[in-house]
## 1
Amino acid sequence: MTLLRQTYLLMWKDLLLELRRRDSLLTIFFFGTLLLFVFHFAFDLPPDRIAELAPALLWLAFLFTGTLGLAQLFQAERDNHCLDALLLSPLDRGALFLAKTGFNFALMFVVELVVIPLFWVLFNLSAWNLLPQLFLVTLLGTVGFCVLGTITAAITLRARARELLLPLVLFPLMIPVILATIRCMESIMQTGGMTEAMPWLRLLIGFDIIFLTIGILIFDWVIES
Amino acid sequence: MRLIVNQLAKAYGYLWALRPLDLEIAPGEFIALLGPNGAGKTTLLKLLAGLSTPTAGTIELDGKSVAANSATRRGHIGLFAPADHLYDQLTVLENLRFFTALYGKESQKKGLAAAVEEVGLAERADEYAGNLSAGMKCRLSIAKWRLLDAGLLLLDEPYGVLDGNGVDLLEEFLRQQCAKGHIVIMASHHVSRAVNLCSRALVLHQGRLSFNQAKQTPWPSFDRAFGEFLPRGGL
C-alpha cells in the first residue's frame, strides 16, 4: 500500500472521529473567536499602526488555538492503546505523520475561514481586497505550524505533563514561521502587494518544505522512541 | 513461519525484566506462556511484537531479523489485546474495514460481514465499538485477527472478559490458526486452559525462562516446575 493511500485512510479515520466527537473543532473555534473578542476590547488599535499590529494579534490567536488542537491530536490513539495497534501494523510512519499534519491543517483551515473575516470586521479593517493574499500567507504559515506541531505533539505524546510541555517545545521552534508569516502579512498590508513580501514568503515556503520532508523521514524514530 | 529468538533481554534501568533467553518455535506451534505476575510475560510479548526495543538479542521470523522492523515484517505479527486496539467512535464494521485496509487486506472486505456474524456481533455491526461490553470488544478482536490472519499471533490474558461461548470461539480460532501453520503464543494465568490448548509450555520466573518443554500427558515435570506458582487447587 502506498504512502498516499495509507495517509488517506488515516485522515479519513481522523475526520470521521472528529465529525462524531467534534471535540477539537468546537474547542479551537470557540477559543479562537473568544480571543478575538478579548483582543478587540483590550486593544484600541490606532489606524496608522494597524498594519503593524493586526498580523501579530491574528497569529497570536492562531498560535493559542492551534496549540489546543495539537494537545488533542493523538487523543484517539491514546484511547484503548490504539497507537500500539497502529505501530504494530505495516503502516509507514511517514503516512501517520502526513495524516496527522493534514488533519490538523484541515481543522485550522476551517477555523481560519471564520476567524480572519471576523477579525477584519471587529478591527474595522478596510482592505478587504487584500484578504486572498493574506489568506494564502496564513495558509503557508499554518502548514509550518501543523508540521512542527505534529512532530512536537508526537515527541510529548508519552510525557505526563504533555499539555504544558507541548507549547514549551513548540513555541521556540515556531519562531521562524511566526516571524516570516507576520512580516509577510505586514508587508502586504502596508504596500498592498506581494513584491516586498517575497523574501519572507520564500523563507516560509522553504521552511514548510524542509520540515515536511524532515517530518516524514524522522517520524518513525519520533513515534517509537 | 518459524520464530528464532537469540539471547533476547530487556532491562529497565538496572532492573532486568527479561534475562537473556533463547527460543526456537516451529510453524503451527501453540505456546503457553506462563508465570506469576511480574515474571516478564508481557515484556516478552511486547518485544516479539516490536512494540518495545530489546536491550540485547535478536528476533528472527523466517530467517529475517525483526529488528529491521520493516513494514512487511510487522504485517505478519499480531497482538491480541482483548478489549483494546479498537476505536471507540468507529462502528464494529468500520473498525474491521479500517484495520483490514491498513494491513492491505482489502480482499477480506467481502468477509467482514461473515466475520462479524461468526463472533455473534451481526446485530451490532453498526454500533460504535465504545458501546460494546468488554466481552463483546474481545469478540470483535477475534473477528479482527481472523481477518488479518497474522502468521505470529501473540495474546496477553485473553480470557479475562469472555463468557463461555466467547472462550469457545477464541479457542476454536486459535486452533485454526495453528492448523494453518501459524504460531500462537498466549500469556495467561488460566493455566489449565492454556495447557490444554498448547503444544509447548514456557514458564518465566523473575525474568528467567525456567521451563521450556513440549506437552506430555501426564506431565510431571511441568507440575514440578510450575508447582510453586500454581493457583490454589492446582490444574
## 2
Amino acid sequence: MKGTLSGRKREAIAFYLFMLPWIVGIVFLYAVPLVASLVLSFTNWDLFNSPQWVGLRNYTNLLTGEGTSFWLALRNTAYYAVVLVPLNLALSVAFALLLNQPIILRRWFRTAFYLPSTIPVVAVVMLWSWLLAPSGVINSILKLVGIGGPAWLVDPAWVKNGLIIMGVWQLGGGVVLFLAALQSIPRHLYEATMLDGAGAWRQFRAITVPMLSPIILFNLVNGIIGALQVFTQVYVVTQGHNAGALMMVPFLYDNAFEFNKMGYASAIAVLFFVMIMLLTLIVLRWSRRWVYYEGEVT
Amino acid sequence: MTSSSQAPAAPRTATRPGRSGRLAATPSRRRRGPGLAQRIPVYVILLAGTVLMVLPLLWMITTSLASTKYVTTFPPKLFPDTFEIANYGRIFSDTDLGRYLLNSVIIVIPSMAGQVVASSFAGYALARLRAPGRRFWFVVTLATLMIPYEVTIVPTFVMFRYLGWINTFWPLIVPQLFGSGYSIFLMRQFILQIPTEYDEAARLDGLGYFGIWRRIISPLSVPAMATVAIFTFTFQWGNFLGPLIYINDSSKYPLALGLYAMTQTSNVGQTPDWNLIMAGGMLLTVPMVMVYFFGQRFLYEGANALGQIRV
Amino acid sequence: MVAAGAAASLGLGMTACGSDSAQQGPADKANLIMTIWGSDNDTKTYQQRADAYTATHPGVKVTVKNIPVENYDQQVDTMIAGGSSPDIIEVNGTDGPALASRNVLVDLGPKIQSSGLKPEDTVDAARVKGYSLKGKQFALPDRGGNLVFYYNKTMFDKAGVPLPKAGWTWDQFTEAAQKLTIVQGGKTVQYGVAIDDWPNAVQSVVRSFGGTLLNDSLDAPAVDSAAYRKGLQTYNDLATKLKVSPTLKDYADFGQNVNRDALFAQGKTAMIWAGLWDIPDFVKQGLSFGIVPPPSGAAGNPTMLAFGTGLAVGARSKNQDAAWEVVRYMFSPDGQRPIVTNQEDVPSAKALLSEWEKGLPSGVTYDELAKASDQVFPDQTPPQINQIEKQVQQDLYPFFTGSATVDQATSTAASHIKGILAGN
C-alpha cells in the first residue's frame, strides 16, 4: 500500500475506469431508452411533426379500442411461447441425457444436434418454407402415412405450428448446455446412491434434476423471453400479411416503422415489457421451490 | 446416467474404499454395463433425432446444387438428378450476394472486437476490483439481461436519427462497442475462476491493474473471450431486424437482409428459383458452421462457466 | 437524472426534426436523389428522363434509387426521418396522401401557379385531382394506367374460345376460364385465370359488383356491405369452387414470391388482372397476348382501378427548387416520352396517348380499352388509406386461405377500419 492515494481508492478508480464503456452503454442503450419509451407512450408522434401529449389514450386504444390487434398479437405470441418453450426444454434435456450415455461417436451426434441452431434464421425460413410448402416434402411424407398435411406456413390456423416446428429444429443450443452440465455432475453422487440400490429413475429425480435445475431455469427464462420476442421468422414468412402469425414484436414494428405511430408503438413496448417482467418474476418465484443451488444447506 | 440399476450385487466385494474416497473403478467390462442390448434403444432414438436434424440441411445442400428444371417441378423428388456447382458462381454473378457478404464482414469484425474488449474490461472489474457500488453495478448488469430489446428499439432509433446515422452501419456496430450483459456476465464468471495468486504475483512484479488485465487475465480468459466473440458473430451475422430498420440502400444490405430482399423482387421474370435461394442460404450458413466447428471447445468451456451460476 | 436524459434526448430529437425552411440550394446546381420502385425497366426509364434534363441543365444531376416495393414506404420514411430526405419521390394514390398529411411533401400549388403551368392542359383533370389532399397539390401525375385484364391468345385459340372484348360479362368470363383450365392426371397444368389477394385486383372486381372499401364521405367502412361481400365471394370462388385459379396455398407450392404475374409470364395461366407495366416483361417472354377491360360483375359498373404514380418534391429536401424544375420537365410531354419509347407504362400526358398506342407490341391493341374509358375509377384516399389497405389485406387473408368466411373476414376488416379512422 504505497502511493499518495490509498490502495482502496486506486482500486475503486480502476474499477470505474474499466467499467466506463459498459456504464455508458447501460445509460444510453438501456436506461435512457427505457424511460424514453415510457414518456413516448403518452404522446402521439409521427417523427416529423412535434409530439403531442395524449395521456393514456394510446393505452386505452390498445387495450379496449375498436379493432385493436393487441389481444390477437398477445394470444398468438402466448401460444407460440407456451408450446415451443416446454417442448424445447423437454426435448433438449431428453437428448442431452441420451447423449450423456456411454456411447460411441458422441461428438458426431452432438454436432448433428447443434448444427441446425447455427443456421441463421433467414436461411432457416428459406429452407423450411420449401420443406413445409403445401405440396412440399413434409406433407408428401405425411401423405405416405395417410395424413393430409395442412398449408403449414400459409393457413392462418397452422402458421404458428409451422413456426414452432422451425423453432424446435433449432434446439441444439440447449442440448449442448445441458450436456455440459450433465457431464460436470460429480460421479460420486451417482455411485453413492448406487450403493443404496437406487434405480435409474430415482437417481434421475434425486441427483440429475436438482443438479441440472439452475441450468434448466436459465434455459427456461431465456427461452420464454426469446420466444415472446420472436420477429425475424415471422416477418420473413408472412411479411405481416398473415393475421394468424401476428406476434408482439412484428405488431410493434408495423406500428413504429410502417405507420410511424411512435407513441402507439411505445405503448405496445411498455405494456409488453411489463408483461415480460411479471412473467419472469413469477417464474423466478416459482423456481425457488425446485431449483437447487450447490452449497445451499437444506 | 449409468446403467447402475442393472449392476449385480457383486460390486460390493469389488469395492475398495480407495485413498481418494471414491469407489475404485470396477472392472471395465462391468462399467460398460450389459452391452449393446440395453443401449440399442438409445442409439435408435439418437439416430432418429440426428436424421431429423441433419436431413433438412442435406436438402438445402442438394437443392442448392440442383438445376432450375428440378426445382420448378412439384412435388420435389428426394434428390435431384444433376448437380450444378455453377449455381454458386451464379449467385455471385447474377445477384448482389457478393456485395451483401462484404457488408456483413464489415459489420461483424468491429462488433466482435469491440464486444470482446468491452466485456473483458467490465468482467474483470466486476470479478476482481473492489469498489463501492460494485454489487449495484453487477445487479444492474444482470437486470439488463432482463430488458427485452423491443422496449428500446423506438428510442434508440430516434437517438440514431438525431445523430444522423440512419442508412449507415454505425447503429449496428456502435452498441456492440460497449459490451452486453450476457458477455460481461460470462467473462465475470470465467475470471472468477482464475486463482487470485496470479494477480498477487503480478502485483509484486509491479504491474498495475491494467497491466494485470493485459498480461495475466486476458491470456487466461481466452476461452471466455472466444465464446463472447462467437456469440457476437452469431448475433451480427444473422441480424435481420437491425438492418431492416436502419439500412435503406439495397447496396448496403448485409447478407441476411439481402438474401430476403432477393426473394422479394418486383421483376416479374426475375424471381430467383429455389435453387439459387438455397445457394444463398448456404452462403449465409457455412461461415456460421465453420465458426462453430473451430470454436467448439471454447463454447463448452464457456458453457461450463455458466453451469456454475454463482451470484 | 435518467429522466432528464430521456427528456433531453427527446427534446433534441424534436428539434432535429428540422425546419422546412432549411438552407435551400440553387435551382441550377444540385445533386438530386429520386426514389422509385419497380422493375429494371422503370429504373432505366426514369434515369433516361432525368439524364435528358441534365443534358440541357448540366449543373443538375439526378440519381435514381430503386427501392423494393414491399419496403418502399418504410424506407422513404426512414430516409426522411434520418435527415436525408429524397428530393424527388415517386408516390401513388395510397402512400401519397399519407406522406402529404404528414407534411413531408411540398405543396406544389404555389410553384405551379408561379410558373404558369396548367396541369389540365397536359393531363386529365381527374388525374390531377387524384394527387391533391385538402386543397394542396402534393404531386403531379406522371404515368397512369389502370388495372387491365390480360389474356393469352395462344391458349384461347387452342381451346377455341372467343377472344374477350369490352363489355363482356362475368358469366362469359367464367365460361371461358373453365374451358381454359386443363387438368392432366389429377394436376392442373394450366389455369384459366390466376387470382390472389392483391388489393388492387380485389378492389376492381368488388367495385364492379358495386362494393367499396369506405362509404362516399370516407368516414365509415363499407367493406361489410352486401355488394362488397358478394363481389369478394364470387372472386374467390374462382379458386375455391370453380377451381379455375390457384389458391393461395397453391402459390406457396410454386416457390417464393411466385404470383399471378409470374404465372402468366411462365405460360401457366390464360388470364390475369394486372397493371400495364407488365407488358414489356410478357413481350420478352414471347407471349402472344391481348389486353381488355376486365369482366364486370354487373353491367355499367366500373372495373378498372386507376393507378398512377406521380412525382412529388420532398419537403425536407435541401434542393426543392432544383427538384421542382426536374419534376416540371418530367411532367411535360417531352419529359414523358421515354415512358412510351421504353414501353414502361401509359404516360399521363394526353398528347402522348396515341403515340403510346402505336407503340404497343404488335398484336396488342388498346382498342377495347379505349371503348371502356368510363369503367375507370379512382381510389378512395383518406390520409390513412395506406394503413387501411394494409390492414384490410391482412384481414381478408384468412378468407382467401379458407379459414374464415366472407362475413367474418369483412366484419373484422370493418371494425379495424373504424378504429383506424378514429385515429387509432
